[in-house]
């Protein structure tokens, strides 16, 4: 069974937002750098609604504009230990390109899973991302990421 999730490549001008995730639920993990991502909940009206909810939960802000939804998803299988814990074998993440329209200094990590938010240039992002599948997705679509 697949867990449905959403993820955001958030930008403001020529900078992209990454989060430093240090927990999954209440369990501490080695820190990993990623885009804002989260599971779709039954109460979400759509994947777009889920994305805006996740952005608010993790940053405290509603100053986001969804620019586009990518057709391709990021898909991966969970390790056996995680499968048993969460009840899902795989995850399919619908990715969005999202513009942040607020003041960058106003964004703060609001979720205890997130230790830090960091703005990076498009050239810095691939080296900072922890997961290969996310890095490959970003590199593949980098030329089509129309940022101002």
Automatic annotation (TrEMBL):
Residues 1-143 form the Nudix hydrolase domain. Keywords: Hydrolase. InterPro entries: NUDIX_hydrolase-like_dom_sf, NUDIX_hydrolase_CS, NUDIX_hydrolase_dom. GO terms for molecular function: hydrolase activity. The keyword Protein biosynthesis does not apply. The keyword RNA-binding does not apply. Belongs to the Nudix hydrolase family. This is NUDIX hydrolase.
């Amino acid at each position: 069974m697949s867990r449905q999730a959403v993820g955001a490549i958030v930008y403001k001008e020529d900078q992209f937002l990454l989060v430093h995730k240090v927990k999954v639920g209440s369990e501490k993990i080695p820190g990993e750098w990623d885009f804002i991502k989260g599971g779709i909940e039954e109460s979400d009206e759509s994947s777009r609604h889920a994305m805006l909810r996740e952005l608010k939960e993790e940053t405290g802000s509603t100053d986001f504009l969804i620019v586009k939804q990518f057709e391709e998803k990021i898909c991966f299988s969970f390790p056996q230990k995680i499968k048993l814990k969460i009840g899902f074998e795989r995850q399919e993440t619908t990715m969005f390109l999202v513009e942040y329209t607020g003041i960058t200094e106003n964004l703060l990590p609001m979720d205890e899973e997130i230790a830090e938010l960091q703005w990076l240039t498009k050239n810095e992002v691939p080296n900072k991302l922890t997961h290969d599948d996310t890095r490959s997705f970003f590199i593949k679509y980098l030329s089509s990421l129309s940022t101002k």
